[in-house]
TrEMBL record:
<dbReference type="InterPro" id="IPR052133">
    <property type="entry name" value="Immune_Signaling-Apoptosis_Reg"/>
</dbReference>
<protein>
    <submittedName>
        <fullName>MEI1 protein</fullName>
    </submittedName>
</protein>
<dbReference type="GO" id="GO:0007127">
    <property type="term" value="P:meiosis I"/>
</dbReference>
Length: 306
C-alpha cells in the first residue's frame, strides 16, 4: 500500500487537504506501527519518491504563508495537514539517520522561519505547535546534518555586522545564532507557563523535550554556552510557576524532567537541596504502581541523575 498511497500524494497539490491529510497520516503510521525490518523498507520506499518529497516541501512552506486562525485551539483542515506534514518529515529525518537510507530528493527549509513559527506563534493551534517542536527536536538531535534536509541558516550580511565575540559564538553554534537561542529559550519558557495554566499536557511534554534537546545540542557545540543557558535565573521563576499547584506538583513529569536537566548541567542556582528533598520524600510516600507512565519514567531519570 505504501507505493500507491505515496504515489497518490505526489500527484496532489497542498490544497488537496481532503485526500492528502489521511494519506500522510497513513504514511506516518506505516513508519511507526511496523516491525523494524519492514520499517527500514518503508523508509526506503518513501525517500525514493521524489514527487512525495517535493509535495512535503510545499506543505511545510504553507506554515508561514497562511494567516493565523481567529481561534488558536481550532484545528482547521489546513492546519491538520500541516501537522501531518511536520510529523511525517520529523519521522523521515529520524529513520533516514537510523538506517542511513539513500535520499533521492532533499528538502530545504529556512531555519529562521521554523524558529519564528515557535517564537512568534501567532495563535497557532496546539497540535501544530507540537508537530513543529517534534521536527525541531529531530533536527537538533542530528546537529542539523541530515542528508534529507538542507537548512538555510543565518543571513551572512547580517552576521557580518555583529560584534566579533558574538560572531565567534554563532560560528560555534552554527547554523543557530546566539540571539536565536535565547529567543527560542524564552519562548519555550513562556509557552510552558501558558500551557501549564491551560493544563495542556501534550504541548507541555513537547516543550520540555525540545528544551532538553536544545541544551544538549548546545553542550555538544559549546559547553560554556549550554551551562550559561541552563543557569538563566528566569528558569527559577519558571519552576516556581510550575510548582504553584501544591505539594503534588513536585511529581509532575515536566517538573521532574526540568529539574533533571538543571541537575545534569549543574544549575545549582535553579534547583535547591530543599526541592530535591521534597521530591525524594514524595517519591517515598507515593504508590509507585499507580503513577502514570510519564511520571514513572521522569522520576526514574531524576533519581538516576541525583
Amino acid at each position: 500500500l505504501l507505493f500507491p498511497v505515496s504515489n497518490l500524494c505526489g500527484k496532489c497539490r497542498p490544497r488537496d487537504t481532503d485526500l492528502l491529510q489521511p494519506s500522510l497520516n497513513f504514511l506516518y503510521w506505516s513508519l511507526h506501527q511496523t516491525t523494524p525490518c519492514s520499517q527500514q523498507r518503508a523508509v526506503a520506499v518513501l525517500l525514493s519518491n521524489v514527487s512525495l518529497l517535493e509535495l512535503l516541501q510545499k506543505v511545510l512552506e504553507c506554515t508561514w504563508l497562511q494567516s493565523p486562525p481567529s481561534q488558536p485551539a481550532y484545528l482547521s483542515p489546513d492546519d491538520a495537514l500541516l501537522c501531518s506534514g511536520w510529523l511525517l518529515v520529523a519521522s523521515l529525518l529520524l529513520y533516514q539517520h537510523r538506517y542511513n537510507t539513500e535520499v533521492h530528493q532533499t528538502l530545504s527549509l529556512d531555519l529562521t522561519e521554523v524558529l519564528n513559527a515557535v517564537i512568534f506563534r501567532k495563535k497557532k493551534p496546539i497540535l501544530l505547535l507540537v508537530s513543529i517542536l517534534q521536527f525541531l527536536r529531530a533536527v537538533l538531535r542530528q546537529n542539523f546534518s541530515s542528508s534529507l534536509l538542507v537548512i538555510v541558516g543565518q543571513n551572512t550580511a547580517q552576521a557580518a555586522t555583529q560584534p566579533q565575540a558574538s560572531s565567534l559564538q554563532d560560528a560555534a553554534l552554527h547554523p543557530l545564532a546566539m540571539g536565536q537561542v535565547f529567543s527560542l529559550v524564552v519562548s519555550l519558557q513562556n509557552l510552558l507557563v501558558h500551557v501549564h495554566l491551560q493544563k495542556e499536557l501534550l504541548l507541555s511534554q513537547a516543550v520540555v523535550a525540545c528544551l532538553e534537546t536544545l541544551v544538549e545540542y548546545l553542550y555538544g557545540k559549546n559547553q560554556d554556552v549550554a551551562l550559561h543557558v541552563a543557569s538563566q535565573p528566569w528558569h527559577r521563576f519558571l519552576l516556581f510557576t510550575l510548582l504553584n499547584g501544591g505539594q503534588k506538583s513536585f511529581l509532575q513529569p515536566e517538573v521532574l524532567r526540568l529539574m533533571t536537566m538543571f541537575l545534569r548541567y549543574r544549575s545549582t542556582n535553579i534547583v535547591s537541596q530543599k526541592e530535591i528533598s521534597h521530591i525524594l520524600q514524595q517519591a517515598a510516600e507515593a504508590n509507585l504502581a499507580e503513577l502514570p507512565e510519564a511520571t514513572s519514567r521522569a522520576l526514574h531519570l531524576f533519581l538516576c541523575q541525583v
